[in-house]
Amino acid sequence: MIIMTSAKYFRPLYVELINISENKIILMKKPFCLILSFIFCYTFSFSQLRLALVGGGHTATVNETNDLPNWNDLKNKYSARPGAHFGFIADLQLGLKSKFYFQPGIVFHNKGRKFANSYDTAVFNYFSIDQKQFINYVDAPLNLVYKIPVKGKTKFFIGGGPYLSFIYNGLEKTETYLKTGTVTTDENTDLPVGNSAGKYKTLDYGVNATVGIEFRKIFIAANFSRGLSDFYQANYTGSFKHQVIGATLGIFLGKPIALEPEIKDKDKDGITD
Fold this sequence. Notes:
Blueprint: H1 22-44, E1 47-66, H2 71-74, E2 78-93, E3 100-118, E4 126-151, E5 154-178, E6 183-187, E7 199-200, E8 203-215, E9 218-227, E10 232-233, E11 238-259
Antiparallel strand pairs: 1-2, 1-11, 2-3, 3-4, 4-5, 5-6, 5-8, 7-10, 8-9, 9-11
């Protein structure tokens, strides 16, 4: 991410594949799966279920704070990374007449940022440095959404909730433009992953919000998400949190599945138990 090179603040990185031990994955997934199991079992007894394919574009940034002496001069050199997201969400109505819906999902997200700066060739042997810190995640949002009928089957909706984020892969690349006219390229293809200094964390989490319009089987939404944990631990005092702002197009697949409560009549006398 960021190191003390000639540019002082950025370390090249490329995540090709994250190898996580099976035991760690199981430990990390158990609480998450238990929560999802409870919510799904509770909801399936009296709701409607729909599955939607979602995708869209966004801009991603990293909110960084640190105690480095000349950080105020360099932080404006960072800019947003344009990216995309795609995946699936479920739409579970919380009651046959409820306006509240639970929307869990699995969505692939591009995150990260860019850096560009010019330098005095009288002091340095290069005149500019361009860097890319692109990290990709699989996000699992758990949103509660409120839908308001507008006209016919058109609905306005607003909602939000927490999300879990699992690192997938990424690219961090540094291009140094020398005053001789040549360009040097530096990539790191062996990103350290873990919970110690100089490593990226496999699990991130945060909050997200959504607002939009639903037209029968199609919906359009604006989205915002903000990380609450540091996805990177530097070898200096600092904080690194993801932020994403974008738009999403969703298409519901097939017809809603009615999940009405089962009527129990063990003695078959026509009267419910």
